[in-house]
Amino acid sequence: MEQLLTALRAVAEPTRLRLIVLCARGELTVSELTQILGQSQPRVSRHLKLLCEAGLLDRFREGSWVFYRLSRSGPAAALARQLVAACDDADPTIVLDLQRLNAIKRQRADLASAYFRENADQWHRIRSLYIDEREVEAALVEIIAAADPRDLLDIGTGTGRMLEILAPRVERALGIDQSREMLSVARVNLERAGLENGSVRLGDMYQLALPDASFDAVVIHQVLHYADRPGAAIAEAARVLRPGGILVLVDFAPHALEFLRD
Q: What's the sign of the alpha-carbon dihedral 256, 204, 167, 150?
């Protein structure tokens, strides 16, 4: 009961209620929230700290950036979802907040598209070596559907394509990548696809910041050919896999194409 009371006290303030509504619509940085609310960063940070302490928001670091999103577990998370549902999207303040949020999402999409264009030549060169990617994706969907996992981890998620096709078949899907730029692309793609159960995080495939036995399924799609220590990456994937879980590896057969390691 005390945790619930703490959460209720934390959200009983206009700015904090606005933050709850905004963070229900995606992962946002302090800077982005400051732009939307039109308030100083120290003030917004104090509000966010209270909401996190109350269990209403989750906070995670991505390099030098810190993101916030609606909490996904615990009694306060359930309360947060109910509060968001109870808020009137026609309220003038919320309407303006959401307009500013959409503008920020468009900026994100533009930056992600620019990064993708700059690197398109390399990706197209590698993709030309694949068999039809639709066949690969269909096979992956079939494998995951047969395994029926509750949650899924995609290591080296890149643009988030594996999350796009597999997240609809699980309760929770998480993508890990070492590139902030690629995570920006993936985050935009997940938002466009409307996948609220999918998220991405900065991480190292050799040392995942995840507990043992925390996923029913782990996918490593077209990543191991970049790895200096593929065996170590597979061992780390196995560590976070629950007993009886499934590890799906997709990669090239042995070859002499050294540029694939670049």
A: positive
Same domain, 56 and 156: no
**CB burial string 172-194: b at 16+ within 10 A, e below:** bbbbbbeeeebbbbbbbbbbeee
**Number of other residues whose CB lies within 10 A of the CB of residue 201:** 19
Query: How many residues are given for the chain?
Result: 262
The whole domain housing 187 covers 127-261
- Same-domain pairing of 252 and 133: yes
Q: Shortest CA distance to 72 belongs to which of 211, 171, 150, 213?
A: 171
Beta strand segments in the chain, E: 28-29, 57-62, 65-70, 151-155, 172-177, 198-202, 215-221, 241-250
- 147 plus 201 within the same structural domain: yes
Give the end-to-end CA distance of the chain in Å, rounded to a whole number: 54
In a structure prediction context, what are the per-residue pLDDT tens digits for the chain, which is 262 residues long? 677 777 778 888 999 999 999 999 988 999 999 999 999 999 999 999 999 999 999 998 877 789 999 998 878 888 888 888 888 888 899 999 999 999 998 888 887 777 666 765 566 555 555 566 788 889 999 999 999 999 999 999 988 999 999 999 999 999 999 888 889 889 999 999 999 899 999 999 999 999 999 999 999 998 887 777 889 999 999 999 999 999 999 886 544 444 444 4
Residue 52: closest CA among 72, 74, 71, 38? 71
The Cα–Cα gap between 262 and 225 comes to 9
Domain for residue 115, yes or no?
Answer: no
Based on the fold, state whether residues 9 and 77 are members of the same structural domain: yes
Beta carbons within 8 Å of 130's beta carbon, 6+ residues apart = 136, 222
